[in-house]
Amino acid sequence: MRLMTLRRLPLAPVALALLALASASLAQPAPAPAPKISTAAAATAASPVQDPAALSACLARFSEIGVPRHRGDGATTGLTLCRRGYALFYNLDKHNPDWVIERLTPVELKGKAVRTDKFLADPLVSGSAESGDFDTTGFDRGHQAPAGDDRFDQQVMNETFYMSNMSPQVGIGFNRGQWKYLEEAVRAWVLCGGRPDVIVMTGPIYGDGKQTISARKIAVPQGYYKILYDVKTTRAVGFKLLNQKYAKTDLQTFIVPIAQIEDETGLDFFAALNRRKQTQLETPKGLLWGHDQACANAQGE
Fold first, then answer.
1. Which of 194, 206, 229, 246 has the most CB atoms at less than 10 Å from its CB?
2. Residue 163: what are its φ and ψ, rounded to 5°?
3. Please, what is the average pLDDT of the chain?
4. Are the CB atoms for 85 and 11 separated by under 8 Å?
5. Which domains does the chain possess?
6. Contact (Cβ atoms closer than 8 angstroms) between residue 238 and residue 258
7. Predicted confidence (pLDDT) per residue in 146-184, tens digit
């Protein structure tokens, strides 16, 4: 097993930490009682390679539920990356993030940062997908952690354009349609839906399809999930959308039990909670959250 981490000053523009995993079935770092890393320092050393403590400190902002874990039937090889705006597990075989996790409050969703649309290979991933891999494929470079979730800081928004955060998505009617509507609804629930502290988990559902793009053989998922956890009320809801064109559809249509998403991805989404609480969150189908339909700052990717 080889462990690597990267940490910088708290406002550094690159990742706070990097852990290379021989298998995703390895135990996650124990959560620590730390504040949200977007406003707190995890480390002060400038050296590019450090011990795993930096990664653990960065991931501590998700300590209420823990980051997703691969179950025995979903173990794979990849990297766990943690940045100020999001953390993810990059699947080195499929060149997709198996999961991306964010913690959203109104602070992150307000600001003057603007899209640059500058898609870059991730400097922390050897052999990362590149923007050109998507050229002429007919698929969009689909953000898993949306750029619009990080308006508070330009560099943090820019980091959402690393290709490790991208997955091949149908464009018109999905990435530029139904999926976008879901992303906007998430921001509205945080900004004006009475849910000002939400942990969001997003990623692909590969299914049994064999479709890939580019010589790098980037997997084209059959669908995508998004799971929301309201930290204050400890309630959760999960969505599953197929990777296809939709006419605009009520989001309630896409709500499924989180246990179903676990079965289809091989992931455990609330690993830090006891089994009883996990069952309470994952078994029901769930209901759509409400918000002010005129919510400001929720629009845009």
1. 229
2. -70, -15
3. 85
4. no
5. 17-282 (3.40.570.10)
6. yes
7. 999 999 999 999 999 999 999 999 999 999 999 999 999
